[in-house]
Amino acid sequence: MPTIITNGFQINLITLNNAFCKFLSSYGAFTVLSVLIINWFLLFDRFAISSRSARIRSLIALPSAIIFEKMPMGTNVTYICSTKSRRFLLFGALFYFPIVEGILPIVLTIFFWLLTRKQVRNLCNEQFVRRFDRQLTRVYLFQILANAIASVPYATIILYRSITFQTVRSPDKENIVEFFRLMAIWLFYVQYCTDFYIYITISKDVRVEVLKLLCSCPRLGFDHFTAAQSMYLPSSQSLKTASH
């Protein structure tokens, strides 16, 4: 969509402000890389399916090559995308989810908070240092609290489901576990948009700048659109000259 707007309507969204430039460029690089990886897997999949060699065809179902696959859930006809490897499930439950997505973000937040606080205390303006230090402390404390609230339920339910992977539960118990899992997933992914609201709620300076940015975006878009029209559409004076 940004490419269509930029090349089709001559409205370059990337040049509206620095935030658009960073987001669209980073998002574009990530999506292009993801599409390339997916296409490589698709090409290999087609090659393996059409091969006459049974050994190459067997690579499609190789658990170490493609870990996730379509699996039936329970006795009904519902399918889920999961893995049959119990080791991989335990690795994710014991290491990846609690450490990489739970403890590591909190540790990094505390680490950069201490570094930023140290840099702020080296400034000369004592009044600014005290005000900014209080504001910075509140922001980081709320971020740590949000990460902990979102990560602990998610890591707990993943660990429980991995340990009881082969346990047969009744439909009611399975529905309860699935309900808590969905709530934990929702809470876990909502945390990625909480930083913005923490900033604008706690910091008055950030709140003022956000309001200025929101008010200036329509005006900037209209100015770029007007400039593009003036570049590519003939003026009334040129039309009169051409008619004569």
The gist of it:
This is G-protein coupled receptors family 1 profile domain-containing protein. Keywords: Membrane, Transmembrane, Transmembrane helix. This protein is mostly helical and 244 residues long.
Which helices and strands, and how do they pair?
Elements: H1 2-9, H2 18-50, H3 54-57, E1 69-72, E2 79-82, H4 86-121, H5 126-163, H6 171-190, H7 194-202, H8 204-232, H9 236-243
Written overview of the protein:
With 244 residues, the chain is mainly α. The chain has a domain at 1-66. Helix content is 76%, strand content 3%. The protein has helices at 2-9, 18-50, 54-57, 86-121, 126-163, 171-190, 194-202, 204-232, 236-243; strands spanning 69-72, 79-82. It has a two-stranded antiparallel ribbon with strand order 1-2. Helix 4 (86-121) runs antiparallel to helix 5, helix 5 (126-163) packs antiparallel against helix 7 and helix 7 (194-202) packs across helix 8. The longest helix has 38 residues, at 126-163. The protein is extended.
Oligomeric assembly: single chain
For the secondary structure, the number of strands is 2
Quick one: biggest sheet? 2 strands, antiparallel
Query: What class, by secondary structure content?
Result: mainly alpha
Mean pLDDT: 70
What is the alpha-carbon Rg in Å?
A: 27 Å
Q: How do the SSEs run, as a string of H and E?
A: HHHEEHHHHHH
Low-confidence stretches: 232-240
Strand order of the largest sheet: 1-2
Q: Beta fraction of the residues?
A: under 5%
What's the total helix number? Answer: 9
Query: Helical content, roughly?
Result: over 70%
Globally, the shape reads extended
Distance between the termini: 41 Å
